[in-house]
Amino acid sequence: MDDDAVTAFVPGHVTGFFSSHPDDDPSKAGSRGAGVTLTDGVTVRATPAARARTTLDGTEIVVEPVDRVLDALSISVHVEATTDLPLGAGFGTSGALALGTAFAANQLFDRRLSANELVTIAHAAEVRSGTGLGDVVAQARGGVPIRLDPGGPAHNRLDAIPASTRIEYLTFGDLSTESVLSGDTDRLTDAGLESLSILAEEPTLSTFMYASRRFAREADLLTDRVRGAIEDVSAAGGEASMAMLGETVFALGTGLSEAGYDPSVCRTHAAGATVLEGAAPPPSASGPPRANNAGDL
Amino acid sequence: MDDDAVTAFVPGHVTGFFSSHPDDDPSKAGSRGAGVTLTDGVTVRATPAARARTTLDGTEIVVEPVDRVLDALSISVHVEATTDLPLGAGFGTSGALALGTAFAANQLFDRRLSANELVTIAHAAEVRSGTGLGDVVAQARGGVPIRLDPGGPAHNRLDAIPASTRIEYLTFGDLSTESVLSGDTDRLTDAGLESLSILAEEPTLSTFMYASRRFAREADLLTDRVRGAIEDVSAAGGEASMAMLGETVFALGTGLSEAGYDPSVCRTHAAGATVLEGAAPPPSASGPPRANNAGDL
């Protein structure tokens, strides 16, 4: 065990549309759909602690997926997270906390798990907690991910829109992911699969936004404020839709600012979850993996 | 078609070990193995041109995989590439040129292909040209990729070592990938599969370096100069191995400099191939994807 801190960064993720695919096995359960990962994200710093605790921007909080990740790794860690993103507003902050904790704690305690194993643990923790279905998988990839299958890395296939762009967003309030996902999701899933089919035919940013607006309308998730802002952006010649699930509008490029709003501004994030520090312990600290390791030519 | 330039960046990729898996279908052919992607890479700028031509650092060159990518996309482009990496020395520059061309040209000509489709085209172009078997897939992912299966994105599975690190490298000369891959690869493939099995049990950077050294020795690819540098790094307490395929030594952290060498220095690159510019055409430039696109709430 290395007792230095290890820091990981996980991009935020705005889902544009999705379908829900429950399964008794949480590594198979999840969602299909598409979204954008964001340069605004969550930074997670892990340090060893006798008692596990999590702070977000300095305030102690309980994040069930984080506790589940630490249980799965059988370790006790102080998780200090910071973020510019609003909570509960459709940015995948719970997934980012779970995934960042998995990456940082794995290295801090030299658990020697692979990226796929850590993503699987964080994804299952989110699914079991009911806080998300696809954010973790998308946040592990980065870019503009298309989730072709539900579930973790052992079961899903991913594709992506090969583009990057400025993103603007504006949050009016939060929506409970748990309450939407625990309700009747048949209509939502039908709409999500239709949007996925549309995007698969033409994987561009513009078609992603169209398919997302179509989903928001068909799944009947729009609030009046969100609908109004999307219409304003369209009237100004831009492209916007609703973040799933939050009372949040996101737009390509300068869509919201050109419509007269004062949005937060970021970009799509090219990389997935990344360990930032403590990443390269000297060989003497991590120890030779095998007795015949040294100078073995 | 947008006649602005589009620029893409593709990280370099040093393969530590691999096994060769030929197939008549180039999207299934490829290698299994592992490597590190690098912040030193290839920047590709594509502009429309009546006659396709490719320059690297200002000098016109013929890169067969690039020509094959342009053929597959049925377009004619001026590819201007720049790189800090040495050529033919095990850094995946041909794969980077092919993949960067695919990403940039797709956007330049609004071809609307997905990331997986572009990776498949570039991977097949490399395989058909005999210039590489696994670089493109790794360069599309970024990080420290483990290629569990051969082939393009429709066929392979990837994992990764969840870490980042400083990398040092030193090139003594080039080796011909084509001549090694066209020879008897049975011994090489046996050694590569054994190294993959070792890494899968313990996916850490240190074990990756051990498995890579083991491969270089078993596959009998070490030159005297490479062997000497690796031994010097080991004697100084560091971890180094040989880039496949080039007369190049790479080391974790400060391995080569602490052994008295004057290496190039970079880091692992968190993201895969990325479009850098021209990524967000205004909606009016790309056009509505469908007649019912605008303000369709």
UniProtKB/TrEMBL annotation, chains A, B:
GO biological process, one term: coenzyme A biosynthetic process
SUPFAM superfamilies the record matches: Ribosomal protein S5 domain 2-like (SSF54211)
A GO MF label: kinase activity
Disulfide bond listed as a keyword: no
Catalytic activity of the protein: (R)-pantoate + ATP = (R)-4-phosphopantoate + ADP + H(+)
One protein family per Pfam: GHMP_kinases_N
All copies of domain GHMP kinase N-terminal, residue ranges: 67-143
Composition bias, Low complexity: 287-297
Pathway(s) where this gene product acts: Cofactor biosynthesis; coenzyme A biosynthesis
Highest taxon of source: Archaea
Key words, A-Z: ATP-binding, Coenzyme A biosynthesis, Kinase, Nucleotide-binding, Transferase
Region (Disordered): 277-297
EC numbers on record: 2.7.1.169
InterPro entries listed in its UniProt record: GHMP_kinase_N_dom, PoK, Ribosomal_Su5_D2-typ_SF, Ribsml_uS5_D2-typ_fold_subgr
Known function: Phosphorylates (R)-pantoate to form (R)-4-phosphopantoate in the CoA biosynthesis pathway.
PANTHER family, per the entry: PANTOATE KINASE (PTHR42282:SF1), PANTOATE KINASE-RELATED (PTHR42282)
Similarity comment: Belongs to the GHMP kinase family. PoK subfamily.
Protein name according to UniProt: Pantoate kinase
Organism: Halalkalicoccus jeotgali (strain DSM 18796 / CECT 7217 / JCM 14584 / KCTC 4019 / B3)
